[in-house]
Amino acid sequence: MNPQAIASATTQYAKTTQHLGQTALALYNASIPGLEIFAVIATAALIAGTIIIIVKTGWFSLRVDRVRDVVLKTDMPKKHASAAWTMVEKHFFAGDLNDLKVAIMDADSILNDALRYAGIHGVNLGERLKHVKRNQMPNLEDVWAAHKLRNEIAHETNLSLKRDLVEKALDAYKVALKNLGIFDEDSK
After folding, report:
1. For 41-92, how does the pLDDT look when each residue is reduced to its tens digit (9 = 90+)?
2. Gyration radius of the chain over CA positions
3. Nearest 10 degrees: CA dihedral of 73, 75, 77, 78?
4. What's this model's pTM, rounded to 2 decimal places?
5. Orientation angle between helical segments 97-117 and 59-70, nearest 10 degrees
6. Which of 79, 122, 157, 173 is exposed most, by the fewest CB atoms within 10 A?
């Protein structure tokens, strides 16, 4: 092979390589805006998904409650539940239909808060009760019956209640709260 042909082939190879390099660089530079847009959309979707999971599971509110209780050294859940239960009893002893309904609704809310504080996952009491184990709440069937009564009250406007049915439901809520340690065993 002659030196001139080798030099010509080398020059041609260098030009081809340089042209391929410039083409690849141009292609890369042209695709950067698309990749940036994809990265922004993917990041936004992941952040939104994380926020949705945090809100749906109640993770953040549970942490806030625990910080209040641990860092601030309060016994807030028990104090709050005790004060709220006093209002439940006040409504129950008032005795008219609306007060009986309010008593059930408030008792249901107290139990929901107690289960949330205990770390039972779910958005509402019904979902949390599905995650409760029998050893955590031996009267689980009674609590479900009380919760179903609460749902009837919430969804039926002309529901008439019997006082003994309300009393049974409130007893179920109170026993459940005692089992969770919110109320002392000797409380009425």
Report:
1. 999 999 999 999 888 887 777 777 666 655 544 455 777 888 899 999 999 9
2. 33
3. 170
4. 0.61
5. 80
6. 157
What CA–CA distance (Å, rounded) separates 20 from 134?
Answer: 70
Q: Where are the domains of the chain?
A: 3-57, 75-179
- Which whole number is the average pLDDT over 84-107? 92
- The separation between CA 60 and the C-alpha centre of its own chain, rounded to angstroms, equals 8
Alpha-carbon gap, residue 19 to 141, rounded angstroms: 77
- Note whether 120 and 128 are within 8 A (CB): yes
**Whether the Cβ atoms of residue 136 and residue 68 lie closer than 8 Å to each other:** no
Q: Between 97-117 and 163-179, two packed helices, what is the crossing angle to 10 degrees? A: 20
Question: How far is Cα 91 from Cα 113, in angstroms, rounded to an integer?
Answer: 19
Reduced 3-state DSSP string for the chain? CCHHHHHHHHHHHHHHHHHHHHHHHHHHHHHHHHHHHHHHHHHHHHHHHHHHHHHHHCHHHHHHHHHHHHCCCCCHHHHHHHHHHHHHHHHHHHCCHHHHHHHHHHHHHHHHHHHHHCCCCCCCHHHHHHHCCCCCCCCHHHHHHHHHHHHHHHHCCCCCCCHHHHHHHHHHHHHHHHHCCCCCCCCC
